[in-house]
Structures are given as C-alpha cells and as structure tokens.
Amino acid sequence: MVDRRGVTVGCRSPFGRFALAIGAVAWVLLPPGTSLGDEVAVPVALQAELVAKVASYDRNLVSRAGDRVHILIVVNAKSDASNSFAKHMTSALGGVDKIGGLPHDETTAAFGGARALADACRARRIAIVYVAPGLADEVAGIRSALDGVNVLSVAADAADVPKGIVLGFDLVSGKPKIVVHLGQAKKQEVSFKAELLKLAKVHE
pTM of the prediction? Predict the structure, then answer.
C-alpha cells in the first residue's frame, strides 16, 4: 500500500522497514520548501539520522567498535564551511540515541595528512570517520591510506564517494539516496547487508 507521500507502508521485511524509515526521516527533517544550503546537498540533521540507520546495516560495526562507537569528524581547519559542518554534525549526532545499538561519541580533528588520519583511526579505534566539506582534494590520499583500516568512512558530500569514500548521501528528486563505494568498503572491512545495497547507488 502507498500513502499520500508516495511511501510504501505495511512492509514487514527488514528491507521494507528500512526504506520506510528513510522516507519518514526525510519527511520530518526535509519538508517541502526546505532550503538545502550551498555546502552539502543533504542537510546535516538528515545526514546524522541516516548514518545512524545505515551503520546498523554494517555487519562489522559491533566488532569494530567494541562497546562504544567512536566517530571522528575530520575537517579542513582553514575552511569556515568545514568547521561549521563539524559543529552542526556533532550537535546532530548528539541527538541520536544509539548507533547499531551502541552508545557513541564524536570528536573533531583538523586534517593533518592521510597517513596521520589512518594512524589515528587505528590507535583510537575509530568506527566511523566523517569527512567534512573542504577536503575534496585530499580524498584520493585518504582512500589510499585507509586501505586495510577497519573503519567506515562517510562523506559530507556524496561527490566524494566515487573517489573512494565508502558512504555518502545525495538527494534525487528531493529524496535522500544512499551512495556506496562497494570496492572501497571491502578494503576497509565494511560489509553492508544486501537489503541496504538494494536501496543504494553503488560504485565499484
């Protein structure tokens, strides 16, 4: 059955419930006429809700995180937009109860090189690293440095996903779209369930 918003309802499968959850989040946080801003296509509050839902579909999240999901938001310290994104994302994630059934915390750090980022992810057992706007020129290096590092990388800008960030969110006809780099996901030991990938735009 389809409701007045064009969202399928009455779905009992995990796939159906997840699709419905995304639609519900978008409807609440992104009503018609909402300004999307110039820096990222998907508003920060919506990204925070979606990353929490999507992360729970990563089979390796719990083993990676242990008893707590540590999230590192990496920024271009010279970019006002990058710093502003991190501030708002930290606040938005703070309103999320749990990620993958686990408590979580958020830390912001200035980008100091791809290798240093990879080392920090290993040393601090970072489960999710969020790449803020202003680092597009660094994505290739980040991709290479994170090969073999057990971490879910998320892009504030979905345009960074084809370049090698594992996960991002875009808007298609005003609706949120999950974007996944499957090849890089495998290199970073991220294993998304099939029902998640069915909802996503997948890059190899």
Answer: 0.83
Q: Residue 81 is part of a domain; what is its CATH number?
A: 3.40.50.2300
pLDDT of residue 120: 97
Q: How far is CA 43 from CA 6, 37, 75, 88, in A?
A: 21, 8, 17, 10
pLDDT, one tens digit per residue, over 82-112 is 999 999 999 999 999 999 999 999 999 999 9
Of the candidates 43, 93, 39, the one whose C-alpha atom is nearest the C-alpha of residue 70 is 93
Domain span at residue 199 reads 14-203
In a domain, 2, yes or no: no
Parallel, antiparallel, or unpaired for β 152-155 and 69-75? unpaired
Give the total number of structural domains in the chain.
Answer: 1
Spatial CA neighbour of 108 closest among 144, 79, 72, 65: 72
Q: How many residues does the chain have?
A: 204
